[in-house]
Structure formats: structure tokens, C-alpha cells
What does this fold into?
Amino acid sequence: MKNKTAPVLSAFILTVFFLIACSLFTGPIDATPQPDPYYFEPVTEVLIFEPDSLPAAQVGVPYEAKIQITQNVTPLDSVNISNGALPAGLELVQMGDEDAAMISGIPEESGTYKFTFFAGCVGTMVSGQIGEKEYEIVVTDPAASTAGGLPVSYDNITFEIPLELNSSVSSSNTTDVEFPYINPSNGLMAEHIAFQFTNFPAAGTARLMVFNASEYAAYGQPLQEAVAALLSGADASQPFPDELLQGEFSAQAQPINFKNGHGVRQLTQVLTNFAPITNEELFYYYQGITTDGEYFVSAIFHVNAPFLVSNGSPDAVTPADGIPFGSGTDLDFPAYLSAVTQKLNDAPADSYTPSLLILDRLIESIQIAIQ
It folds into this structure.
């Protein structure tokens, strides 16, 4: 009897081989690979922190400072102080409804508090963006003020802010380009310490800077001349060095000594294209040096005179006792400048806002410890 199973089995095996062959050779030869749905490109944008610096605080006075995070691709996930510490009495809280954090509370102790603020963002299958920024909060204590003013201390530099100014300061180490350079091609200045005044009586710049004298002199020829002039020994009993009074306009020039140094203050204004002297642009400018020649002090404070026009606009009204600027063929600029200079020199120091005597007291209180 013939075995009928063998042909059936053979036919089954051939069918299986045929199906396998079809599956191998009938599929698309150049199939496009599909992206992995679980792979995400890492985020490379750098987080931006605003503001660049935080306002000063006072002991016993409620304080708030908001830090905003921008350029984040995903929402803010966490914030903390990764280095240093907040002033006692203040706390950091993430704001749940926006990409920001709030520092708030009532400061308990005066001092300069440096810390590093950390922010991290939500990650989706990859780590979210992270970033850090160094901040400082200067806390002053009005109750500790002397009769002369509010004490400030930072990095071996001390001075007093006269109480009449009703101002506070924030301090920082910076490479900002400082006056007298306006649009320099020399690049950033050497690192120096800057005190930025807030709530100053006259709108505009209110800033005090301390430089390493040799690094300051190396930045440009005018600064080299200023340092050399002060190193020559000029003080309150000697004539003004000409290098400190250079420029088209100078008034109320007086030698002012500080606790371990000397220098000269003056009123001046950057003059371009025969501009009028205005309250918007007039400022108190001080240049000084420590007795050992190691540190150079520069200060620029905007001041107002009651008889000056407010700004350089053609519509600005000259006060009744002011000196008209003139225009066109009526403008005799050298005569105008001479008349304004004389009027500024004749004006009492305490007729300015703020008083020049008050600013002199601030300069006189400076002490720079020798490191």
C-alpha cells in the first residue's frame, strides 16, 4: 500500500518555503527609516536671568525682588541658592504661575550678601535647561548710621553716604567702560569695583569706582596722564594738575582729600557740536588716588543748578536768571561757555542739587584698605 502522507508533507514544506521567499524578496528595497518616537534633541539655548542686579535692602524694611527666567523652551521646574546665602530674613520662592522666582521678606542684618541663583526647567525624555547667575544684595541698617551718614563697606573699601542724599548703593566687580570714555575702541576696562547709587536726588548717573591705578592708566593716554598727575604729589595744598582739568568745560574745581588719598573734583559736561550746558548733562566729577599710588578713585554724580536749562531741546525754557544759548549767527559759543562757567563758579556750593558740599563729604569719607 502506498503512503499518502509523504506527498502531502512535501507539498506543505514547499508552500512554507515559497511564502518565506516572497516575504524576503517582495518587500520595499529602499524603505525610509522611521524616527524614534522616544528620542528628543537636547535643548542648547542659554537661560537668561533678569534683572542683571538686585536692589539694595534695609534692615527691618519689607523687601521684594523678582528674578525672571527667559529663553526657556520648557516651563521652569525648580529654583534654589546653589552657593552662598540670602540675607537673614529673606527667602526664595518659585512663582507658580510664571517662569520666575521671588526673593522677599524683612532683612535682619546689614552686610553684603553674595549668592548664586540656580534655575532648572522641565525635561522631556532629556534633561531640561539649567542655568546659574551670581547676585548680591547689599543690606544697610539706618539705625546704625552715624551722624555723618550711612556706612558702606565692600571688599576693603568703606565710605559713608550722607543722610541728606537719602540714597543706597549696590556694589559689584565689573569690566564696564567708565567715564571719560564714551564710545571706546579699547575694549572692556580692567576689572574694578563700582558702587551704583539708587534714589539719587538728581536724575542721571550716580556712580563711584575704584581701580587698580596701574591697570587704569594702561587703558588709555588720558587716564595715564591723570594717574601721573596725581602721583606727582598734588593735594589740597598744591595747584591743580592740568591733566585733571582737561576738556572744553570745567567749573567749581576744588581739591578734595579722602581718608588715605587726595584728588580734585569739578563740574563738567561732555560737549559735542556746541551743546548748551544743561541740568540733564551737568555732573560732579572726581578723580583721586591713594597715598601709596595703588588705587585710583573716580566718581560721577549728576547735579542740577537752578539757573540752567533742563535739557538741550530747542523747546526747553531758560530760567529767568539763566544764560540764553542763542542760535545761528547769534551764537557766540566761547562767550556763552565763559559766562556759564563764571555763573557756575559764583553759585554757592549748597545751591546745587545735591549740594556739592554733601558730595564732598561722601568723597572725604572714603577709606581704601591696603591689601
